[in-house]
Amino acid sequence: MESNDHIALELLKKAHPPETASAIFTEKILHKPLYLRPTSPDPNRQDARAHRRLQRLRKKEKARRRQKPKPLSAKEKRITGIYDIPKQSQKYDIYVPLYRMWLGYIWEILGMAKGKQTWVTATAAGAKLASADFHGAKLTVVRSKCVSTVGLQGIVVRDTKFTFQVITEKNELKTIPKNNTVFRFQIPQPDAIAEMPDSEKMKDILDEEIGPNVLVFELHGSSFEHRAIDRATKKFKQRNMTEL
Q1: Whole-angstrom Cα distance, residue 113 to residue 121?
Q2: Phi and psi, residue 206, nearest 5°
Q3: DSSP one-letter code for 213
């Protein structure tokens, strides 16, 4: 008569006494719990691989935030127009206070503050003016190979490497190339301005009709083709100008 015992029990009886084999079969096989995995994973738990990937992404994002933003290229600046002056801001009267601030700045760098010297020499003033910032200066084109720009006068609102952008008294924005152009600007003496009545100061400063109390300078644009920030550390050499 064939035995109906479980095959595992039969194998255990061959290696152990019947009582021991039955105990092992009951504990290890018959009553062994069966753990079943859920049909879908728990969304609140992640496996080790996904967890490591998430940590790398967080670390990469944190490092990216610490980095400085990449500067815009010249093409991107032109597309966005970040340096363009809006039409409503192209008013001459808006930049008159800027011109007054520039006069105070140029008096200081030339050592012409009130109560100090009222004259300058070409040797001393030339190097200072060559490295000065001309945003806010009032320039006049006196000579140029581009004859249509001769006589233009306005306050500098942008000083680029190759051009001056000025606002004229007619509220027009003009771009004047520096190459082959001679600009003239005048600096009134601070003592002469201080002696005038307040009602006449601004008019005379803008008209630049102070007579002998004004210093006149000419600026050769061909030797001035540098950005304002680069001129501060550049050494200029004297040379003959044969372009004009």
Answers
A1: 16
A2: -70, -40
A3: G
What are the tokens at 123? 């040797």
* 23-to-11, 14, 29, 100 alpha-carbon distances in Å: 13, 14, 10, 106
d(CA 132, CA 107): 11
Instruction: State how far the Cα of 241 lies from the Cα of 181, in Å rounded to an integer.
Output: 11
pTM, to two decimals:
0.62
Q: State the residue for tokens 């490092």.
A: 63
pLDDT, tens only, 110-134 = 887 665 666 677 667 777 888 888 9
Q: In 134-225, where do the E strands start and end?
A: 138-144, 153-159, 163-167, 173-177, 181-188, 214-220
What single string gives the DSSP state of each residue in 89-121?
G--GGGGHHHHHHHHHHHHHHHT--TTS-S---
* Segment (H or E) for 244: none
d(CA 90, CA 71): 27
What spatial distance separates the first Cα and last Cα of the chain, rounded to whole Å? 128
Alpha-carbon distance of 210 to 117, in angstroms, equals 18
- Report the run of H or E that residue 45 belongs to, with start and end: none
The residue among 226, 92, 229 whose CA lies nearest residue 155 is: 92
Which residues fall within 8 angstroms of residue 226, CB to CB, at 6 or more apart? 161, 234
pLDDT digits (tens, 9 = 90+) for 178-192: 888 999 998 887 765
Three-state DSSP class for residue 131: coil
